[in-house]
Design brief:
The protein is α/β, with parallel strands linked by helices and 260 residues long. 18% of the residues lie in helices and 25% in strands. The protein is built from six helices and eleven strands. It has helices at residues 56-62, 77-83, 119-126, 133-136, 202-206, 224-238; strands at 5-17, 30-41, 47-49, 93-95, 114-118, 154-157, 162-165, 168-172, 181-187, 190-196, 245-247. A hairpin with a 2-residue loop joins strand 7 and strand 8. The chain starts with a strand and ends in a 13-residue tail after the last strand. The relative contact order is 0.18.
Length: 260
């Protein structure tokens, strides 16, 4: 028996305040993070989920708080896809879980791909709240968001569960942003969820049981209640087995070269 599978893509490292991952926890404490994307193989289409940050110079200029580090040998979209046995021009579909700067940085690497994003996310990204101008590299702040370079190839979807191809579906996971979506891959060992930043780190789902907290809020959100409900939905899909979750910034996502 075979089916779709997931290969996590290592698109670089960063160091940021821990409170960005866990609301009001670890303020002033630096935490190491990863830029996590994913390749979905074994389906009818070759699919990439998220495209990581832009080049280092742009990241440091506009987002110094994130402390992006230079790519190490083997990191980055092209070499990571090569390890998965595929070239950027072979990718049919790129699913963007949301449109923050560190998830749309390599969109022009895929000359033949259709891009999928939620209609709600695109609408918000084009006219975000002023406090989120930097996160979206909004035109209103004098920047130009990189997703505009492929705007003619973007297909928007509603915020509801829907099939992309057999064995791959998108689900609404709002909270981090209004239009965040996740990707459920129905593998031979059950469903796995690629969350984008709906879940930044595994600790968001693991919570703090001794404090009677089943989950920990991310420090970056637009809707706390929606984020909590997204945690619950992910938990339900994987049956509490977080080894079947690929978060947006956790180094532990790379403890497996392939899922399942």
């Amino acid at each position: 028996m075979s089916g779709p599978y997931i290969i996590p893509l290592d698109l670089g490292d960063s160091v940021s305040d821990k409170s960005l991952s866990y609301l009001r926890r670890g303020v002033g404490e630096e935490e190491y993070g990863k830029r996590v994307a994913a390749y979905i193989g074994g389906a009818k289409k070759k699919i990439v989920v998220d495209t990581g940050p832009p080049e280092l110079e742009r990241s440091l200029k506009y987002h110094p708080y994130s402390k992006s580090e230079p790519l190490k040998p083997g990191q980055g979209m092209v070499p990571q896809l090569a390890k998965a046995g595929v070239k950027p021009e072979e990718i049919d579909i790129v699913i963007l879980t949301h449109l923050h700067w560190d998830h749309v940085g390599n969109v022009t690497t895929f000359p033949n791909a259709e891009f999928i994003v939620s209609q709600e996310e695109l609408r918000f990204a084009l006219d975000p709240l002023p406090c989120l101008y930097t996160a979206y590299e909004a035109l209103q702040s004098g920047m130009e968001p990189l997703f505009l370079k492929v705007i003619d190839r973007i297909r928007t979807v509603d915020m509801r569960e829907q099939k992309v191809v057999d064995g791959v579906r998108v689900i609404p996971l709002p909270g981090h942003t209004p239009g965040s979506i996740g990707v459920v891959v129905d593998t031979e060992k059950g469903p796995y969820v690629i969350t984008g930043d709906a879940v930044s780190k595994y600790g968001n789902l693991e919570g703090v049981p001794e404090e009677r907290l089943p989950y920990l809020m991310s420090g970056i959100y637009t809707d706390m209640l929606a984020m909590w409900k997204s945690f619950e939905l992910i938990d339900e899909i994987v049956g509490g087995d977080y080894s079947k979750v690929i978060p947006g910034h956790d180094p532990r996502a790379f403890q497996n070269e392939r899922y399942p």
